[in-house]
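Journal club side-thread
Mid-discussion, someone asked how the predicted structure for our own chain would compare to the paper's figures. Pasting it here so we can look after the session.
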Amino acid sequence: MERVAVIAITRGGLATARRISSLHPSWEVHAPSKLDDGQGGVSWFGGPAAGTVGGLFASMEALVCIFSLGAVIRLVAPHLRGKKSDPAIVVVDDAGGFAISALSGHLGGANELARDIAGGIGAVPVITTAADVTGTIAVDMVGRDAGWRIDGDEHVTRVSAMMVNGEAIGVWQGAGERGVLGGGSLPPNVTEYASMGELCGSGCAGALVVSDTLDAAPPMPAVTYRPRTLIVGVGVHRDTPAPKILESLEGTLRGASLSPMCVARLASVKKPAAVEGLAEAARALGVGLELVDRERLAAAGAPNPSRVVDRLEGTPSVSEAAAIVSSRGGELVVQKVKYPPDLTLAVARVAQ
């Protein structure tokens, strides 16, 4: 985390804040001006701490509050919005004996932050989230480090409760890196099934599904994770606009029952000048753009070569070849789709 504020309101707390800051120099330290001792590295504030805490709550990724847990609760309560947007809050006592994950333990990263601070100053980390203390799977954190995203969160709380209560949970993984779910080791109440059909007939109370397709929907409450497994090859003219690329891409993926959330990057031929529409489309999707030399594309063995494309681009295929090359030997799952007169798309699944 980069935007972290450490807040102290006593002299003892300020000393602990400086210990923490010495381990993380980019973190800000805030304290009341009445404690100003002439040393640098502190943002001194006047007036009640409530105003400072409220402002930092809205602008920071995390707050480290070095005062009582009860006071922290009262100060942040008016600003709470939800676990998807609230910053992580870690509470540390004045003496630096305990580092308590108080808010946004999973999604906000407070659990990890509490452990980090505790390890740095010799404190005891206090973690209370059920998945952590029972050693089971934290449903809302699965695949986060691998770039997986949850597609809809309507069942996250319910399936999380099933998980920590030991109810039967079924798993099916149709895409994405293996070994990510549960760190490669599943709790006793979690069973992995070889097919979606087996999962559907398992009688499990809930499910975890890892898939890049839109038709993987079991009958029980399920949390679906979207790994970034799809490479979209794009053949464009220099003036093909980004809106056309984005709209056509959405239609191509939906038509093949593939999730747009699983796009890892766009790929195309390296041209003498940048194609702004292509770069803009990649930025809009929040994915990378790989430009491949025409010689590598020509050697890719695309299934639908074109003499016209070969004459114009110096390779018989752009969209299919780019998807194949950028997927590092993956499978072409959508062959070339034409959107005349200036766009072709193809999709490959990355090799696992």
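Post-session note: The longest strand covers residues 331-339.
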